[in-house]
Design goal:
Blueprint (H helix, E strand, L loop, with lengths): L11 E4 L29 E11 L1 H12 L2 H5 L3 E6 L10 E2 L5 E2 L23 E5 L1 E2 L2 E2 L2 E10 L3 E10 L3 E11 L4 E12 L2 H5 L2 H18 L8
Antiparallel strand pairs: 1-9, 2-12, 3-6, 4-5, 6-9, 7-8, 9-10, 10-11, 11-12
Length: 228
C-alpha cells in the first residue's frame, strides 16, 4: 500500500540502547519487517495504513517536524507526560529501511530539539507515558522510543510498549518523500491484547487500531485542521 522511492542518502539514523526487559514484547523492530501483515509476532494483530499528504520537500519537512514533535499523539487526543531522555547515551546502531533491510547509521550528532512547552522531540531510548481514551477504553501506557530515522527522503520513529497498556507491541511512524515527488505517511503496528476484554473480543483490538490510525492521519494531513 505504501509507495517506496529509491534508497536515499542517509543523514541521521539513531537507535537507543536496550537492556533485557525494557520493553514488554520480544519482536523489537518487527514493524519494519516487509512481511509483518502476513507473519505478525505471535498472538498479535498487525495493521498498516498509508496516506498521501501532498508533494514536495516543504510538505515532507513540515510533516516530518510535526511527527517528531509528537503532533500525531497529541492531536489524536493523547496526553504525554513524564518524557525522559535515554538514561545512558544512545549509540549509532543498525536500524531498518522501509523494506526491512538493515541500514548502517551515520555518526552525525543531532542537537536536542524541543517544542514550545519544553517537551523534547522523539529521541532514541526516550521513555514517556501516554494518557487518554480510544474507542471508549483507556489508552494509558508507558512507551520507549526504539529508534529514530532522519534521512534525506524519510523521517520517522518507532514506539514500543514498556508497561501499563491494554495491548503490548509496537508502532512505527514514517514520512516518505519518494521519487515521484509524493509525500506519504505510513503507520504500521502490531498489538497483542493484554486486557481481559481485548483478549476475549479480538475485533476490539482492530477497532481500536482503526480509530488511532484515523486520528494520526487527521493530525499530520494538511487536509485536516490540526488542533492547537
Amino acid at each position: 500500500m505504501s509507495p517506496s522511492g529509491s534508497a536515499s542518502s542517509l543523514v541521521v539514523m539513531r537507535r537507543g540502547t536496550f537492556r533485557e526487559g525494557t520493553v514488554d514484547y520480544a519482536a523489537v523492530g518487527a514493524t519494519h519487517a516487509p512481511d509483518l501483515m502476513q507473519y505478525p509476532p505471535e498472538r498479535s494483530v498487525p495493521a498498516e495504513e498509508s496516506w498521501r499528504l501532498g508533494s514536495g520537500e516543504e510538505r515532507f519537512r513540515t510533516a516530518g517536524d510535526a511527527l517528531l514533535s509528537w503532533t500525531a499523539q497529541r492531536a489524536a487526543g493523547l496526553q504525554l507526560t513524564d518524557v525522559r531522555p535515554a538514561s545512558t547515551p544512545g549509540y549509532a546502531g543498525v536500524s531498518f529501511d522501509a523494506e526491512g533491510a538493515p541500514i548502517a547509521p551515520s555518526h552525525t550528532e543531532v542537537e536536542p530539539r524541543y517544542d514550545e512547552d519544553g517537551t523534547p522531540w522523539a529521541g532514541p531510548g526516550m521513555t514517556l507515558k501516554l494518557h487518554g481514551r480510544v474507542s471508549g477504553m483507556r489508552a494509558d501506557a508507558e512507551l520507549r522510543v526504539i529508534s529514530v530515522t532522519e534521512q534525506t527522503h524519510r523521517i520517522g520513529f518507532v514506539l514500543g510498549t514498556v508497561a501499563g497498556s491494554v495491548v503490548s507491541g509496537e508502532e512505527s511512524f514514517d514520512i516518505e518523500w519518494n521519487d515521484a515527488d509524493e509525500v506519504w505517511f505510513t503507520v504500521r503496528a502490531f498489538d497483542r491484547p493484554n486486557s481481559f476484554l481485548y483478549r476475549s473480543f479480538p475485533y476490539l483490538v482492530k477497532r481500536r487500531r482503526r480509530e488511532l490510525f484515523a486520528r494520526y492521519l487527521r493530525a499530520i494531513s494538511p487536509l485536516y485542521a490540526t488542533p492547537v
